Amino acid sequence: xxxxxxxxxxxxxxxxxxxxxSLALFEFKVDWSGGSYIIGPIIEKLAADYSQYLDFYQINMxxxxxxxxxxxxxxxxxxxxxxxxxxVNKIEGIISSQKLSEDIEKLIQNDPGN
Length: 114
Fold this sequence. Notes:
- The structure is a single chain.
- By secondary structure, this protein is of the alpha/beta class.
- The protein has a single domain, classed as 3-Layer(aba) Sandwich (Glutaredoxin), CATH 3.40.30.
- Helix content is 40%, strand content 26%.
- The protein has helices at 10-19, 34-50, 65-70, 97-109; strands at 6-8, 23-29, 54-60, 78-83, 86-92.
- The chain has a 5-stranded mixed sheet.
- A hairpin with a 2-residue loop joins strand 4 (78-83) and strand 5 (86-92).
- Helix 2 (34-50) crosses helix 4.
- The radius of gyration is 13 Å and the shape is globular.
- The relative contact order is 0.23.
- Keywords: Disulfide bond, Electron transport, Redox-active center, Transport.
- Belongs to the thioredoxin family.
């Protein structure tokens, strides 16, 4: 499978959020979380399906723990859906592929740029 989403550092994440003009999904993960392993293939599949509409990013929280404090991330994985630099949805823990796809579809339908 082609890897459709990009790993980001803390500084890259901050720049992406501030400058993001299109829709984006940011996955915050830790290597020791079973939930992070479960959601990984779901995100990869959705990234392949929706890459023309959204940018997909992944942030490993272990070397970037200050982001957890700044964005009140207490569960892993946590997904942030961002639209034009603003967080429009925060999903904590495991989510089904169908529910996440529905959330993405709603964002796409409500985005005049798509």
